[in-house]
Amino acid sequence: MQRERIGLGREMLAAERLRHRMECVDMSMINAWAAHAAKGPLERFDYDPGELGSDEVDVAVEYCGVCHSDLSMVDNDWGMSAYPLVPGHEVVGRIVALGANAKGLQVGQRVGVGWTSASCMHCGSCMGGDQHLCMTAQPTIVRRHGGFANRVRAHWAWAIALPEGIRPEAAGPLFCGGITVFTPLLDYGIQPTDRVGVVGIGGLGHMAVRFAKAWGCEVTALTSNIGKHEEAQALGAHRVVSSTDTKQIAAIAGSLDLIIVTANVRLDWNVLLAALAPRGRLHVVGAVIEPIPVQVFSLLLGQKQVSASPTGSPTGIAKMLAFCARHGIEPMVEQFPMRRVNDAFDHLRAGNARYRIVLKNDF
Q1: 212-268, pLDDT tens digit by residue?
Q2: In the predicted model, is pLDDT for residue 18 greater than 60?
Q3: What is the pTM of this model?
Q4: Is 259 helix (H, G, I), strand (E, B) or coil?
């Protein structure tokens, strides 16, 4: 009880300091880092977000993860970027303003905001609990400004409370990469007795291994990097297989109930499908650009499935966070001050991140 009182006192003190700090700055303007052209460097950029909507909240950014999707948006790899573009969709911070209709949140509360910042809340997907599949959902960094800033704005339902037991400096990547690999475990009835393969032990894959291990599954890591074999085992993999060695994959044919593909490169899809057990599922969460060739008979004879998914719903994110708090799971992160955002991007471009990068707000 005494420990709980101390913890509550610290939270109240932090919230009071935050309120005092925000009273000392111009709340009409947001200070940010933005790209002004495709593949261009990020530069200081200030903007007025306008009046806070009745369903919106403003979050003072403490930390923001750097996702490969941020890099893709800055480079306009997907052809949907608009400039100036403020990246950042793995935000952790405290609420500093609440719209009149915001529910279940309070000023000073620590929350996270991920890939999605808003959805319509009245379509079939939203009413059915699949708000992330809403046809008018608003990604945090697509035609709105993200979290490489001192504040970010979101619909109240997409500001998810961060539970005790998760360090805020490491939590950001959970709100995009984490929920992306957690969703298939949650949505497809994966059992603790199932055998799960994870292709690609990187920013997404290292979290997938940890989740599947804590879920109770037997985990097989498939990686092209021989240097990651020991690290994959340390993360929780029961065995490690080369993702580029067809003989090694063929040796585990018919053994996996679920394969989560986190890589975004060309793979030997037929060999991977052969690694599935009957009724197995090959599930893609990496942004694979090229078509995936699939022969119907490779699915039909074993009643196998190929599927894909984006991030997850607010409820799914909350469940993932509770799971992480219970099992002590967090991403492996490297931290940069936000003023070194271009250095962080160079580090990511070079493939040197181990495994996620987080920026600390230093405005």
Answers
A1: 999 999 999 999 998 899 999 999 999 999 999 999 999 999 999 999 999 988 899
A2: no
A3: 0.92
A4: strand
Instruction: Count Cβ atoms below 10 Å from residue 34 Cβ, excluding itself.
Output: 21
Which residue reads 């297989």 in tokens?
241
* Two structure tokens written together for 232: 């994959």
The H or E element that residue 314 is part of is helix 314-327
C-alpha to C-alpha distance for 172 and 63, rounded to whole angstroms: 7
Q: Quote the longest CA-to-CA distance of the chain.
A: 66
Q: Identify the three-state secondary structure at position 164.
A: coil
In this structure, the strands spanning 138-139 and 333-337 are: unpaired
Indicate the Cα dihedral angle 90, 93, 94, 100, nearest 10°: -20
What order do you get walking across the sheet with 256-261 strand by strand?
239-242, 218-223, 195-199, 256-261, 276-284, 305-308
* Cis peptide upstream of residue 314 (ω within 30 degrees of 0): no
Partners of 242 in the beta sheet? 223
As a whole number of angstroms, the distance between CA 250 and CA 241 comes to: 10
Per-residue exposure over 38-77, b if at least 16 CB sit within 10 Å of its own CB, e if not: eeeebeebeeebeebbebbbbbbbbbbbbbbbbebbbebb
Give the integer Cα–Cα distance in Å for 363 and 361: 6
- Coil, strand or helix: which one is 258? strand
Residue type, 231: E
Find how far residue 327's CA is from the centre of its chain: 18
- Give the long-range contacts of residues 166-170, CB within 8 A, separation 24 or more: 166/321, 166/324, 166/325, 166/330, 167/330, 168/62, 168/63, 168/92, 168/110, 169/62, 169/63, 169/92, 169/333, 169/335, 169/358, 169/360, 170/330, 170/331, 170/333, 170/358
Residue 222 CB contacts under 8 Å (≥ 6 apart), including other chains? 197, 198, 199, 200, 240, 241, 242, 243, 249, 259
Q: Is the dihedral of CA 208, 282, 124, 145 positive or negative?
A: positive
